[in-house]
Amino acid sequence: MDVVSEELEKLSRNGSLSKSLEDVQQTIDLLVKARDTIAVDPNAASITLAKLQNPVRKSLDDINSDLKDVHAAFGKYSKALNNMFKDKPELSNDYDALSSRPALVNRAIAMHLLREGQFSVASTFLTDATRNTSLTSPDEMSDEPNQDSRLEQGLGLDSLKSEILRKKFANMYHILHELKNERNLLPAIEWARENSKALGLRGSNLEFELGKLQFIWLFVHGPYLGNTNTPIEGRQQALEYARRELSHFSTRYLKELQQLSGAIAFGPNLQDSPYRRIFLNKDSWDHLASSFTREFCSLLGLSAESPLYIAVTAGAIALPTLLKMQNIMKVKKTEWTTPHELPIETPLPPNFHFHSIFVCPVSKEQTTDQNPPMMMPCGHVIAKESLNRLSNKGRLKCPYCPNESNTRDAKELFL
Questions:
Q1: pTM of the predicted structure, to 2 decimals
Q2: Which of 42, 122, 230, 252 would suit a FRET pair with 81, their CA atoms being 20 to 30 Å apart?
């Protein structure tokens, strides 16, 4: 693993194409300058082209040299990876749940690219990924009046929805850029105000936290606002902002507002004040950016983290356990008979737990969509298959209490 880490570090250092792009741009600039010179004085074309040969040749040599270093770094890293995993067994693909659903995989990738702000890449991927999808026969595809729309519909992302998502995520990245890089909270505050009702229904405190950080920014950085304000003027601006914009939060956030107001008395010496943790917290901007991203995605009906990232990470964590299970099954000559359920427990971090699970106390099996938990009138819960097995002509006795009931009285339970 040390060898792989070392090669990865070298790759991150030498695998950038930025130097190559700079050399390419220099070559383009030379050619454009020569073209403009010839356009002004056509009689100087031969002299201009003669002068151009050496600089262009040098630029091309520099580009080739840059690319050679990049390819060498990639080659060494790939070789280190191959050497590390060459003796490792491959996971069996006898049952591939996604092989028959390529559109789902493509949709996950496209959504991941949109979430990451790679809008042009996502657009190109949507077209290329669906070009080989057998939505219709080739003849029908060629007659389609709006092929791009048809292709995106095959992924569950019609043109309208896809364009809406692009615009929304572009707005999200603009707000995040202003918040994290420019320390400008105003776009985020404006977005929170526009979505105040939806955020309130979610019980979110984002709108208040944005206003609170704006107060802190005015309070602490008053001298730097336009390079004209004194510290006292900055604190005065913060107080006026709180009266104007934060007063309607007094019912829900009275304690927090009292702390902000109380800090005014310690304005000249915040470093040693009881409010130091609130006003001089270096992580507050990053925490607020994460909170904004989470709430923004939630209002779109999406998780804060990319599902593709979560799936790949969870699979990487579970892979050693699955490989070990495969080797044991191979030695004992047993088969995996529950394709929709892992036969062993796979430990994952708490942030990878999304759904409650229910194990039937009768069959000792985990419930599924096809075999959901059923609650009987007495309040006890068993799996649907167990319910059917225990019933006799539509009647059954609860295995955990004396109550008897009809199977049609049992209700499906959603966890």
A1: 0.60
A2: 122
